[in-house]
Amino acid sequence: MKTVAIIGLGLLGGSVGLAIKERAGTIVTTGYDRDAEVRDRATERGLVGTVCETAAQAVDGADLVILCVPVGAMEAAAGELAPQLKPGAIISDVGSSKESVAQALARALPGHTIIPAHPVAGTEQSGPEAGFASLFVNRWCILTPPEGVEKEAVKALSDFWASLGARVEIMDASHHDLVLAVTSHIPHLIAYTIVGTASDLEEVTRSEVIKYSAGGFRDFTRIAASDPVMWRDVFLNNKGAVLEVLGRFTEDLTALQRAIRSGDGDTLHDLFTRTRAIRREVIDQGQDDERPDFGRKDHS
Amino acid sequence: MKTVAIIGLGLLGGSVGLAIKERAGTIVTTGYDRDAEVRDRATERGLVGTVCETAAQAVDGADLVILCVPVGAMEAAAGELAPQLKPGAIISDVGSSKESVAQALARALPGHTIIPAHPVAGTEQSGPEAGFASLFVNRWCILTPPEGVEKEAVKALSDFWASLGARVEIMDASHHDLVLAVTSHIPHLIAYTIVGTASDLEEVTRSEVIKYSAGGFRDFTRIAASDPVMWRDVFLNNKGAVLEVLGRFTEDLTALQRAIRSGDGDTLHDLFTRTRAIRREVIDQGQDDERPDFGRKDHS
C-alpha cells in the first residue's frame, strides 16, 4: 500500500488522512472533495498530501481508494473515478451501512476489487475541520469482503486499518447491518426523535428544555447533532435492519410503559440493574471513558 | 443558615456536603445514612463535619435539613427525624420528582417549613465515593415552594444553593414534573430500554453490542448505569408526566418509522437539521461540554 486516495474530506476522510500522516507516514495520500471550500480547507489543514481538483486525478495511480462520502452518494462518487482506476486497486469506503454500499460499488465498478469497510468511530462534528489523527485508535473497523475477493487484498486492507490504530473484524454485510442497527443506527434514531419531541412540546418551552438538559437530555443532543445527510442516507440504506430492531425496541418500551402504569417497581428495578452491568463491560473493554459523565469538564 | 443536616450520603448528599465545605465553609454540617458502611466511608472522606448514628441526632439543632434519599423513601426518612426537628427549620430535598415529594413530606412533617428542591445535576455513579464539590456549579436548582411558605425561607434556601454555585429557579411542582419528564426522566427510560433491547437480541451477541458500542450505543449505557433504586422511584412517583411525554415520543417515533419505511428522506433530513440547532443552544448556554464527544479521552 504505497498510495491512498481519499474521496470526501469531512470528519472521516480527514481523519484517515491525518492518521496516515501520523502513523503510516510512508504512504502517499491524495484527496478530493466535490466542495471547493472543503478542498481549500483540506489543503490548509494538510489532511492529505495533495488535494486534487477532480476525483479522477486523485485516484490516478492509487493502490487504495477510500470513499468517505454519505452512503447514498457512493454510487455516483465511484462512477466518477472509474475511468482512472489503476488495475488491481482496492476500492473501499467508511460507510455505516454495508449491504447497500456493496451493491452500489459493484454496480459502479464491475470487475474491480471492492472491499467495503466501516470504522466504528466518529464524533457529532462534521466537515474538514472535524477530523483528527487518533479517531480510529482502539476502535473496531469492520470489513465486509464480498465472496470471491482475493485474500491478499483483504489482508492488505486489514493491515492498513491496523496501522491507523484500529482493531479489525471481518463479517458479512448483512450481519454488519443488523449489528450496527443496534449499536449505532437505532441509538441515533432515538436521539433524533427525543430531541425533536422535546422541542415541539407546547407545555414545556424550548428554553426550559435547554436549561434543564443536564438531567440527561443533553447527552441525546450530542448524538442528534450528527451530520443530517449522512444519517438520512444511513436510515434509507439500512431500512430492513433498522425497522426490525426498532420493532423490538418499541415492544420493550411498551412493556416498561405498562410497568410504570401499573406501579410494577420490580420490573423496573430488574432492568435497571441489568443495564448497569453492560456499562461496566463497555468500559472494561476499552470502548468508553471510565470517568463519570465521560469526563466532561463540568467537573473540573 | 448556620447548620445543615444531610440525610442520605450518596452521590447527591455527599456532593452537597463537599460543596458546603469548599464554598460555604462557615456552615456546620452533620449527616446520616441508614447504611453503616456508607456512614464509615462518609467519615473517611469527610463528606460532612459529623456523621451521626441516627437521623434524629443529625437534625438536632439544624437550620436546614436536606433529604438526599430516593423519592420513594422520603416519607419514611422524614418520619424518623420529625421528633428532633428544631422549630423553624427548613426541610428540603434533592429528589427528581416534586409533586409526590411535596405530598410525602407534608404527610410526614405537618406544620413544618417544607420547600422541595431539585438540583438538576448528577452523574451515572452513586454511593459515598461518587460525590464531588463542583457538582452543582453552573447547574440549575429548581425550588418548588408550596403555597403559603414564608418568603424568607425560600430566599434563604435560594441563597444556600447559589452559594454552592447553582443557579436557582422557582416553579410549581407539577410544572417541574413535566419539564423534568422531558429533560431527564424520558431520556433515562429510553436509555434503559435500548440497552435492555440490545442485550436481549438473539441475532446479535452481547459481545458484539459491547465491541461496536462506539457507534452511539455507549452513550446510552452511561445513562443506563444510573442508580436503579433512585430511578425506579422516579418513574413510580412521576407516572402521569412520564406517561404523557412518553406518548408524545412514541407518536414521533412512529412518524419517523413511517418515513424510513416509505423512503421519505426529506422528513428525516428536516428533523436532523432542526435537532442540530438544539445542541448549539445547549452549549451556548453552558449546559454541556463543547468539545467533540464530550471531551472523551479516546481522542487524547
UniProtKB/TrEMBL annotation, chains A, B:
<dbReference type="Pfam" id="PF02153">
    <property type="entry name" value="PDH_N"/>
</dbReference>
<protein>
    <recommendedName>
        <fullName>prephenate dehydrogenase</fullName>
        <ecNumber>1.3.1.12</ecNumber>
    </recommendedName>
</protein>
<keyword id="KW-0827">Tyrosine biosynthesis</keyword>
<keyword id="KW-0520">NAD</keyword>
<keyword id="KW-0028">Amino-acid biosynthesis</keyword>
<dbReference type="InterPro" id="IPR050812">
    <property type="entry name" value="Preph/Arog_dehydrog"/>
</dbReference>
<dbReference type="InterPro" id="IPR036291">
    <property type="entry name" value="NAD(P)-bd_dom_sf"/>
</dbReference>
<dbReference type="GO" id="GO:0006571">
    <property type="term" value="P:tyrosine biosynthetic process"/>
</dbReference>
<dbReference type="InterPro" id="IPR046825">
    <property type="entry name" value="PDH_C"/>
</dbReference>
<keyword id="KW-0560">Oxidoreductase</keyword>
<dbReference type="Pfam" id="PF20463">
    <property type="entry name" value="PDH_C"/>
</dbReference>
<dbReference type="GO" id="GO:0008977">
    <property type="term" value="F:prephenate dehydrogenase (NAD+) activity"/>
</dbReference>
<dbReference type="InterPro" id="IPR003099">
    <property type="entry name" value="Prephen_DH"/>
</dbReference>
<dbReference type="GO" id="GO:0070403">
    <property type="term" value="F:NAD+ binding"/>
</dbReference>
<dbReference type="InterPro" id="IPR046826">
    <property type="entry name" value="PDH_N"/>
</dbReference>
<dbReference type="InterPro" id="IPR008927">
    <property type="entry name" value="6-PGluconate_DH-like_C_sf"/>
</dbReference>
<feature type="domain" description="Prephenate/arogenate dehydrogenase">
    <location>
        <begin position="2"/>
        <end position="290"/>
    </location>
</feature>
<keyword id="KW-0057">Aromatic amino acid biosynthesis</keyword>
<comment type="pathway">
    <text>Amino-acid biosynthesis; L-tyrosine biosynthesis; (4-hydroxyphenyl)pyruvate from prephenate (NAD(+) route): step 1/1.</text>
</comment>
<comment type="similarity">
    <text>Belongs to the prephenate/arogenate dehydrogenase family.</text>
</comment>
<dbReference type="GO" id="GO:0004665">
    <property type="term" value="F:prephenate dehydrogenase (NADP+) activity"/>
</dbReference>
